[in-house]
Amino acid sequence: MNTINLQTSIPGPKSLEIMERRKNSMPLGLAKSTDIAIAAAEGGVVTDVDGNTMLDFAGGIGMMNIGHSNKQVVDAMKEQLNKYTHICSLVATPEPYVELAELLNSLTPGNFPKKTLLANSGSEAVENAVNIARYYTKRSAVICFEGGYHGRTLLTLSLTSKYALFKKGFGPFVTDIVRLPSPNIYRKPDQLSEEEYIQFFIKQFEVAMISQIDPDSVAAIIIEPVLGEGGFIPMPKLFLQKLREITTKHNIVLIFDEIQCGASRTGKLFACEHFDVIPDIICSAKSIGAGMPISAITGKADILDVVHLGGIGGTYGGNPVSCVAAIQALKILSSTEFLHRVNKVGDLIGAELEKWKIKYPCIGDVRGIGAMRLVEFVKDRNSKEPDVEIAMEIIKDAIAHGIILIRAGLFSNCIRLLPPIVMTDEQLSEGLHVLEMAIQRAQLKRS
Predict the structure, then answer these.
(1) Can you tell me the mean pLDDT for 307-316?
(2) Reported pTM
(3) Domains of the chain by range and CATH?
């Protein structure tokens, strides 16, 4: 039996009415990937205000790894709401903050003393991590990479790539930031082997440490081990190991932004576990809160402890309702059963995507780790010229037929797949079939 059940066209009349209200009451610059207004959601299934049942393959841009309205999380939140909603950790200590910090300290990779600071969003986590690294090293420069997305605050927007979409009109930006190219195996020159290509980028990084910045001026290097917004590009293991080597040698703080690629999405609790590289600080958010606003900065205790009393913190950081949600979410995310399911979901999606790559010339690449999967669309497989138009056409078509999708990639020519891991095999197959039919229709138009 199909899960998707469409009572109206998508978007339906009630959704369109709410979209009109949105247009008149909210800034037009606040983007939306669909014109769907949500009434309810559970697991991987969303019901809109018109009564249409759809499958969620966007997962709140990676927020819903354990699914919508998880009972374990909801029950914990209800229990906490009956006690108190907030106190502010700058005034008194909510025990859930302490418990969550202890849990993150124990779960993050690294056999060294750790501490955790909680905030509200991924942007805040990155901002705090960079500020702490600057304080610790007494340096100001930060190295980031092309394709990276780190947030929308002034500092994190300065670190973020994809200028026209995220940064246009918002300058001037923070100074003392050096942005370097990052490897993308799919777009390597044909004459280079993968190993030669990676070695080229390592050499270019070494040259940049002379031509653009001196290592002794660098406070931190920040990178997503698997790019999120940048197109689900796993960083080569050798490249990440080189960053670890350089940062260790020059006492630079290595920060991994695992806000989208963490929380078990790749088949391990933290993506860095795939690469045998342990950063000094890990930034977490999105799915660790199961939809609640919370983020974490977890790292070496001697780094996080360096800031003077009162130098870090915030009014809402470590809200106890969000903390209990994250505690329950992390218990699920770190379980053997859940991680096994992640890899099964990833295998199911990956096998299907590989078939599509053979069948449809508009698909240039399919890639990802675990259940973090993506399809990249091109106008020509030889030139690899990005095809933004077909990606958008496919997304609109698939949404109209009952699955929720969002795009990704530096060129916005990719469709990312981040379905809640709790989806059944049947639901995953149903959603993938809808997407394939949308791809097929778009390809036929161009044949």
Answers:
(1) 97
(2) 0.97
(3) 13-56+339-445 (3.90.1150.10), 72-333 (3.40.640.10)
